[in-house]
Amino acid sequence: MTATSEQTPSPGEATGQPLVVLERVNKHFGDLHVLQDIDLSIASGEVVVILGPSGSGKSTLCRTINRLEGIDSGRILLDGQALPAEGRALARLRSDVGMVFQSFNLFAHKTVLENVTLGPIKVRKQAAKVAQDSAMALLERVGVANQAGKYPAQLSGGQQQRVAIARALAMQPKVMLFDEPTSALDPEMINEVLDVMSTLAKDGMTMVVVTHEMGFARRAADRVVFMDGGRIIEQAPPEKFFTDAQTDRAKDFLSKILTH
Ligand SMILES: Nc1ncnc2c1ncn2[C@@H]1O[C@H](COP(=O)(O)OP(=O)(O)OP(=O)(O)O)[C@@H](O)[C@H]1O
Ligand SMILES: [Mg+2]
Fold first, then answer.
1. How far is the CA of 57 from the centre of ligand 1 (A)?
2. 3-state secondary structure string, 49-105?
3. How far apart are CA 92 and CA 57, in angstroms?
4. C-alpha span between 170 and 3 (Å, rounded)
5. pLDDT at 260
6. Cα–chain-centroid distance for residue 158?
7. Which residues hold their Cβ within 5 A of ligand 2, which is an ion?
8. Share of residues in the chain with pLDDT > 70 (%)
9. Which of the ligands is closest to the CA of residue 227?
10. Is the pLDDT of residue 199 over 80?
């Protein structure tokens, strides 16, 4: 959803540009053409859910957006700027992209609070006290402020994943990427993470979400992008995609996933 007018418009909105743009992006892994002529433009405040069968290129697409994976041709723009291939400029742009993975990736030997303050102190050069105050506010927001002094292993999977979200948010990213953030969670913990994500979406965060949670896709997505074989096959608002998919591949995918 687009941010409400009381909120400060993000730079993407202020300039009228889309926040993330992929133009004819191609990528190979050896002989495998894993991303094929991907064109995708994501508006500021938009929530895009990426669906598709295993191996269709969803994770790779996410990873190219912050250059965890390089691309062979095409362009990726973040807030109007081309993503540089390497160096300091890349580090700066990359820190504008928050990423949450299936595995929680927290630093095991740091406390929850330290996990969240590390980036702001090291990369954003925030003073420790400032970073701690905003980290506590974020931990409050995701419902784990009372766990701040614990180590990741002392938390449930759902709590760890909410810390991972808080850690990404602490860098004040312009866009958040989620790659199957609930797939490794026990069923009873899935909703607590999806609820945090839904709130973020309502608050106007620009989000790209790979998920198998169709309920979340229906509720929170502005747009569903369906991939197969490294291509975007179809895209539509969720109500349209789930009731009136146009391509056989999307219909086939939905018939398999919705019968579970
Ligand atoms: N580092 C890599 N080297 C070689 N091939 C890779 C690499 N990463 C991914 N692939 C291949 O690229 C294709 C797309 O992988 P990707 O992980 O993007 O798919 P996905 O849609 O996220 O699948 P899943 O739903 O299983 O997570 C797959 O065939 C995969 O085996
Ligand atoms: Mg994947």
1. 6
2. EEECCCCCCHHHHHHHHCCCCCCCEEEEEECCEECCCCHHHHHHHHCCEEEECCCCC
3. 26
4. 19
5. 56
6. 17
7. 58-59
8. 93
9. 1
10. yes
User: Tens digits of per-residue pLDDT, 209-253?
Assistant: 999 999 999 999 999 999 999 999 999 999 999 999 999 999 999
Instruction: Look at strands 81-82 and 73-78 and give their pairing.
Output: antiparallel
Tell how far CA 203 is from the center of its chain.
15
pLDDT digit string, tens, across residues 35-86:
999 999 999 999 999 999 999 999 999 999 988 899 999 999 999 888 777 7
Cβ–ligand 1 contact at 45 (below 6 Å): no
Extract the tokens encoding 142. Answer: 């995701």
232, 234, 240, 242 alpha-carbon torsion, rounded to 10°: -70
Dihedral of CA atoms 225, 85, 165, 5 in degrees, nearest 10, equals -70
Q: What are 32's strand-pairing partners?
A: 29
State whether residue 255 is helix, strand or coil. Answer: helix
Q: Which of 211, 255, 232 is nearest to 102 (CA)?
A: 211
